[in-house]
Amino acid sequence: MTLSYLLDENVDLAYQIQLLKRNSSLVVFAVGDPGMPSKSTLDPEILCWCEEQNLVLVTNNRASMPIHLADHIAQGRHVPGIFILNSNLSMGRMIDELIIIAETALDDEYQDVITYLPVTK
Asked: Which of 8, 34, 44, 55 has its CA 20 to 30 A from that of 20?
């Protein structure tokens, strides 16, 4: 299984460029891209979009995303997963993590959970 990603608007667009440069078979969208949610879309709406489009959200939002996810699940909804980037690690390390995860994830492995990167040692 290969995961598809949606980068929230606060994630540097260099992530999208570098992910696709390093693995052109990945599906990586960003909030604000054509056909994606527009910038300033509220987080609960982003989670609904991710659920409907089967996209894993990549974000820096450590503060409110756990609350939004709990509310989303309480409504009987689901998300393929949420990955929170680690600001203490390099962009290169985070990109490596996202590629490894996308290429090796099992079906529903990250569903309805927030995963704080890195997952590999």
From this structure: 44
